[in-house]
Amino acid sequence: MQKRPFIIDCDTGTDDAIAIIAALYSDEVEVRAITSVNGNVEHKYVCQNNLDLMEYLGQDVPVAKGAVKAIRDMNLHSNDGTHGPTGLGTLTLPAAQHKQFDPRIAAQVIYETAVEEKGELELLVIGPMTNIAIALLQYPDLPGLIKHIWFMGGAAVGGNVNTTAEFNIWVDPEAAHVVLESGIPMTMAGLDVTLKAAMIEEDAAELRACGTRGADFVADLLEFMFRRRDNGHEDALMHDALALGAALCPECLVCKDCFVDVECFGQYTRGHTAVDLKGRSGKPANVSVALEIDVPRFRRWLVDTVKNSAKLGDK
Questions:
Q1: pLDDT tens digit string along 173-193?
Q2: pLDDT tens track for 217-260
Q3: Would you name the residues annotated as active-site residues?
Q4: How far is it, in rounded angstroms, from Cα 86 to Cα 82?
Q5: What are the chain's domains?
């Protein structure tokens, strides 16, 4: 089976790392590059997390630095401790000794890889969309070279930064607006659905029993998340892995084609994803929006995908 080429654009955090690991060990995906963006934690931590993770797992995947600020420089990133001080909870990966950053910036990596893949490249976008917007603005022919964008961001209903905005979109709504109006086919795994995608202790135990480096690392991240949950904070939610699940396990989700745009100017609604569920705008649908999730099926897919590391010789 020919693998699907993906670039993962991320602000690695805890659930970002799990999504990356699942993509690396999927039978269906070839990860062509990982690009870093400011978001969950500052960019300096994000890019180092990605580089260290690739060396730790023995993966020959290019890692490129990307945007350190949003298009409108508001210096927004999370400081609430959800992902720990540097993004990986309380875990510390060995610092990469041999692997180096790709000399190109994220936008250039995205464009050049898209050209190489001749229209087959897919993007897993699990942080603010700044890098993607920059690439679209810099390379006008890029929309015709991207097969699909799978993104975690926004919500059909509600938000987590305020009553209407989800974090990834709120950090850089101008970038999200550029991406949403690009004409590229895309699927949105929004907050209102990802809030249901919680892993449980049995999942971590099964991964631990697998005995591979990748599975152990995911189990360690889940254990951090369980402790976080037990202290009254966020559950072991797989926000970003669900965006990958939309691509690789579509039966996990019920989606609806809708017109989606982002509010960039509202005093109280900046970062809100306006999802036209009832078709009242009269505008054509531009996003397939996840509305419902089969949680047990999603959990089974994610655990099995990470456990595939054993078949691939990860020790």
A1: 999 999 999 999 999 999 999
A2: 999 999 999 999 999 999 999 999 999 999 999 999 999 999 99
A3: 239
A4: 10
A5: 4-311 (3.90.245.10)
